[in-house]
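Predict the 3D structure for this chain.
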Amino acid sequence: MSSHRTVALVTGAARGIGKAIALRLARDGFAVIVADLPDHPDAVATMEQLEATGSDAAYLPTDVSRVDEVRRLVAAGVERFGRVDVLVNNAGVQRRAGFLDASEADYDLVLGVNLKGPYFLSQAYARHVEERGGGGRIVNISSVHEELPFPQFASYCASKGGLQMLTRDLAVELAPLGITVNNIAPGAIRTEMNDALMDDEARLRELRSEIPAGRMGSPEDVADAVSYAVSPGAAYITGTTITVDGGLLWNYSE
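Done. Predicted structure below.
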């Protein structure tokens, strides 16, 4: 797939991994749709960085857990750029709670953003691809916790396990439209989600000892994998997970 004037829609793109993905795809030549919550304080800074590199970019405020909003997002992206070629479902949240204490509200939030969002945004995107004549890429940002239990985060694990199976199913269902669908599963990445960990030197040292590569990952490590997944070289890869974790998954114990 040529990246000449192609358009990538990235959710949760105001900061962290999503921001790194948006910047990397802009560097690859994509026009970028920055989708994040309305009035997100970091979205303006991300847009300024994109524009400073000469990228064509637009910030489209969206709550991905709302089906009407994700449908509007795709329509607005098509109206702004004429088409959307790549969808990166990156927006994600987690809520810590022991299983016996977990609330319905936290469950609904986590599953709404992490699984319902990608489900219906992928549907809206695929309908657009069908209308414009086929060909596209969906990349879901999953987690090593699609495979690895994470006590205190059962809803997060369930959402990522669901995303893994959704990826496999859509790879089959959307193949006739020329859409590949893959997961990128980060391990321990230096992001705002891990702020508390970053301030705890003892826990950080223990975590590093669990990672064969000997370091935490960067958002750019994940962005590099996304760049590959949407490149011409990945045209025959679909329905799979690219794990970006420095070896953590197969060397970890809680």
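The longest helix spans residues 104-132.
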